[in-house]
Amino acid sequence: MVNSAAHRSSDTQPIDALIVGAGFAGMYMLHKLRGQGMNAKVVEAGSGVGGTWYWNRYPGARVDIQSLEYSFGFDERLESEWRWSERYAPQAELLRYAEHVADRFDLKRDIRFDTRVTAAHWDEAAQLWRVETDRGARTDCRHLILATGCLSIPTDVTFPGLDTFKGPIYRTSRWPHEGVDFSGQRVGIIGTGSSAIQSIPVIAAEAAHLTVFQRTPNYSMPAHNGPIPHADFEAWSKDPRAYRAASKDTGGGFQNEANATTLATETAPDAVRAELERRWAWGGFRILGAFADTGIDPAANRIVQDFIAEKIRAQVADPAVADLLTPKDHPFGTKRPCVDTGYYATFNRPNVELVDLRATPLKAFNAQGIATSARQYDFDAVVLATGFDAMTGAIDRIDLRGVGGRRIKDHWAEGPRTYLGLMVAGFPNMFTITGPGSPSVLTNMINSIEQHVEWIADCLVSLSRHQQTSIEASAEAEAAWCRHVAEAVTPTLLPQANSWYMGANVPGKPRMFMPYAGGLHRYTEICNQVAAKDYEGFIIRQGDRVLSDSHVFTSHPPMPDIPASLWPIIIERLTAAGLMPATA
């Protein structure tokens, strides 16, 4: 429990806002609030800024969104003084960029590093958050802003005998800052998600032998990485404002030539093939936007699945290995696709071996290595690329208590519930940046971060201008938003994968599609409408007096601007899920 007596005896004054996390979201939030004359501080668990790019230093780590779009656009001078070296910037360069931003705006003086928030309790009488850290520090703040990151808490790994292995065990999410030399070593890696797909080619080129343990194969597209093409840089540099506006006015927050009208099932096979080939040659996520029906119609999705399966077979010499690397249990795009450099071709190397954990399950670690149901594998080192407790992991590890002492763990016992992915009913003055219920991980995170930070900052300015002390999502608006989030994703194929979007990678975590699948452009419009309607769906107070009590949230159609031929599929799924009344 937060020690209220200690707070009462303290002579420190409450600050306007405490921000948890010094990644890109926390840094921009601090800069934005400073510019509005607010007293804001940041608490950061790491020893430096950068969030994801501070922690994830594994070999081959890099961004999967083009660097030009994965960067801040709020300051034109910042844009003009930074030049990316590659289309997809590597971790070290992204961390240098984060450091540059922190130095450029003198942010570190208001960041408390090596400090983790352990508890935050809402004091109803004082209308303040009482916050404690693992270093014994206590802070009172009017507003608590959680910039804790969607992929910041690794999953708990409980392999039998893990502690008995005599060699080092490395986690991709907590890679040693000094790096690791695998030269001449026998290395095992568990996992074939994004972190593994990026690191496997690099480790394989260094290690004497690499054994890859795979449970579920993932779709991966070639990055075709290299220097930023001159034409791309010219298009951006002509009018960065227009370029960024165009990126934000998309579903994913990045430009991928999304085709909103053409259907793969109604296009000649030769034309479909030519379009997929063109996008595959361009690389990255460009293939996601090829046709309007691949995320909704299984028949259309199968066309892309078959195309990628063919590409895998073309890159992997052993047909049996190629087959194991080909996803079969989820539609394309229902898990965040990976972007790689030489991943599939790595399995042609004589020093690389693939182990199918579905056919031969992992039994236990031992002193020498790993035993499966089929045999013993001896290693000098093991790498765990086992993923994250996504979106909620960093939040529900804090002892967060709102009105009446209600714990957020209890409020989220059946899955995370928010209003707009920004606030939680019963937790006044607490904001989440790119939290569950927002587009976040389905988008270019930088653009989602900027949208959230700017909305929160505007909200706090409005509260201050009107001398209002608290804002809180109503329970009714929260329930309506959760229904809308379900309406947005149910017509799609997204729920058909056991993905971390659903919490499926964490034992015991409620199964619920957490991000908002309606698109960043549409979501931004909804948030702006809510604010314009005097913060519709929020309860605003001045001390004990309720000034605005708007419980409602105006409903929105689940999927506007969808080709007419797809509506029968959409209506069928919404009806089956109970989100649309059955017709006679």
Backbone shape: globular
Main sheet specs? 8 strands, mixed
Give start-end ranges of low-pLDDT stretches.
1-11
Tally of strands: 21
Number of helices: 17
Quaternary structure: single chain
What proportion of the residues is helical, as a percent range? Answer: 25-40%
Instruction: Please compute the radius of gyration using only Cα atoms.
Output: 24 Å
Strand proportion: 15-25%
Mean pLDDT: 94
Structural class: alpha/beta
Distance between the termini: 55 Å
Comma- or semicolon-separated keywords:
single chain; 584 residues; 21 strands; 30% helix; globular; disordered N terminus
Protein described:
It is a single chain. By secondary structure, the chain is α/β, with parallel strands linked by helices. The chain contains 17 helices and 21 strands. The strands form 5 sheets. Strands 1, 2, 3, 4, 5, 6, 17 and 18 form an 8-stranded mixed beta sheet that branches. Helix 7 packs across helix 8 and helix 14 packs parallel to helix 16 (520-532). The longest helix is centred in the C-terminal third of the chain and has 21 residues, at 445-465. It is globular. It starts with a helix and ends in an 8-residue tail after the last helix. The model is unreliable at 1-11 (pLDDT under 50).
